Amino acid sequence: MRFKHKVLLLPVLAAVFLVAIIGFSELLGRSTREHLQRIEKGYVPAVLLSRDLDDLLQQLQRTLQDAVAAEDTEQLDEADALVERFLARVAEGRANTVIEAARLDALEAQVRDYARIARETSARMIQKDPDAASRLPEMSARYTRVKEALQRGTEDDQRKMGESFVFMMEEHGNSQKRMVLLGALLIAVLASLSVWLVAQVARPLGRLTEVASRIATDGDLTQEISIPSRDEVGMLAQSFNQLVLRLRTIPLTLQESLKELAGSVERLTHISREQSQHLTRQAASLEEATLAMRDIESSSRSASSQAGTVLEVASRAESLSVAGQARLKESGVALEHLRAQVGGLMPTIGQLTESSAKAAAIIQTVKDLADQSNVLAINAAIEAARSGDQGRGFSVVAREMRSLAQQSMRSTQSIGALLSEMAATVRAVTTSVETSHREMAAGISEALASGQSLQGMAEAVQHSSQAAQDIVTSVTRQNAGITQMTAVVTDFSKMMKDSVQTNQDVESAIDRLNVAFARIQGLVGGFRV
């Protein structure tokens, strides 16, 4: 039975019982009206008719007595008129259904018989007939029979009227009892139906309310609602059970997803820490490279200054050689001084060569770190792709780290090329300086051995001046390259610091993600499945 049918059952039954009560009331009223109508239009007119007939009989008796006493025959006519009125009233009584027709027929016959004998006796007595007196007992007996018949009829009508009234009262009482029983039955049925409705509707709804409250307050999803009814309440209970089953799967799915995400976050944290360590080592290496480049720049400046000094000395030597043989001794001393300076320049150039080699090794280390950063960025991008939408931010970071690593590789390659060029330049300068040194030594030896070799010494001085000019040019180019490489290394160091800061921001984001996971786990843990 549907819920709406159950709800409508109570008012429908109440309406049916109300209609039944109204029907019984109508039947009771109809029966009462019939009895009252029977009494009012039957027995009461019958009793009144009997009384009227008794009065007419008495009037007839008095009229006959008065006629005999007055010896007036005209009063006999009045007696006849009374007889006619009596018979007319009897005829009217035939229309009453409660009066038996046989009784009226017998009464009419008795009245006619009495009226005939009484008129004849009265007429004879008025005429002074001596035999009239002998008929008086018979007339009196006839009068007595009519009087008794009227009295019996009146008593019978009164008795029947009382019996009808008593029957009506009994039937009214029985009807009232039936009405009371019907009302009690109605109350019992409605009470039973109310209890049934409470069991069918209110209790299941109360159970649903209790389960919903426990789910809302305690998060208990282990409950089940067992309602065997197939109405809307039962369908609601089944739908609620299906909802609870669906809700059970949500915390389980969330827990599994949180475990997977926690593992991914842990792996990302480990990767981020390793990346941070690699970036820290790279930053330290770049810092060392920066310091080395600064040392190289300082050595290059010193070499440039010394090359300028060599150039100045060569110029002086050339002017001294032109001045003449007289100052040959002074030129020899100057050439010895120049050779000493060139000999001092050789260790400086050697240091420059060693610094270039160190810088090349550092650049190779930076290149290796950049390759590792690129590999880590690719791994981070793969992990971010596995994490889906939640790893999208980390994917952006991984892409930037990969771009930074690629830029580092390109910068490293540029610096390596510059260092290679600088090393070649340094080797060329070294070769040139060694050649100049040998030539200067040969020239000085030749100048010291023979003052006649001034022209050769002048040429040697010119060669030395040209070599010094080449050295100055090479050292100047080397200085410019070293300055550019220092700027590149400085920029790369700054970029590496930015990468370290970005990685720290990623670690901070991962920490916030761990906090969010902890909150979600706490929320999911609040449900019992």
Overview of the molecule:
With 529 residues, the protein is mostly helical. The protein has 2 domains: 3-191, Four Helix Bundle (Hemerythrin (Met), subunit A) (Up-down Bundle), CATH 1.20.120; 273-502, Helix Hairpins (Orthogonal Bundle). It is built from 8 helices and no strands. Helix 1 packs antiparallel against helix 4, helix 5 (232-323) packs antiparallel against helix 6 and helix 5 (232-323) packs antiparallel against helix 8 (454-525). The longest helix has 92 residues, at 232-323. The chain is rod-shaped and about 240 Å long. It starts with a helix and ends with a helix. The model has no long low-confidence stretch (mean pLDDT 74).
Protein traits:
single chain; 529 residues; mainly alpha; Four Helix Bundle (Hemerythrin (Met), subunit A); Helix Hairpins; 2 domains; 8 helices; rod-shaped
